[in-house]
Amino acid sequence: MKILLISAASLFLSLGGAAVAQTTTVVVPGEVKTYVLKQETPSVTFEGDVAVGTALPDTVEIHTIPDQPDYGYVVINKKRVLVNPKTRAVIEVVQ
């Protein structure tokens, strides 16, 4: 019985940790979204889903945002997407 409780507790803690790691929220400054929405940038085609956490390939050009080195953007499949320029990971789908 003691082994069963220890195993159950271990499983619970490991699953709980995974759930917390997946719910990280990035708060993007409003001026970043405003800037991205105003830009006239051509859309690129991307095969697959574009979702938060998706890493974009090197073939996709990430555009910089003035005075915001932690954010970049791309227009993919006609959707404006905020990207972490260091990791190339999607932060938020804006439109």
Automatic annotation (TrEMBL):
What residue stretch is flagged as signal peptide?
1-21
Top-level lineage group: Bacteria
A Pfam family found in this protein is: DUF1236
Task: Please provide the record's keywords in A-Z order.
Answer: Signal
Q: What is the lineage of its organism?
A: Bacteria, Pseudomonadati, Pseudomonadota, Alphaproteobacteria, Hyphomicrobiales
Question: Which InterPro entries did the record assign?
Answer: DUF1236
The protein's name: DUF1236 domain-containing protein
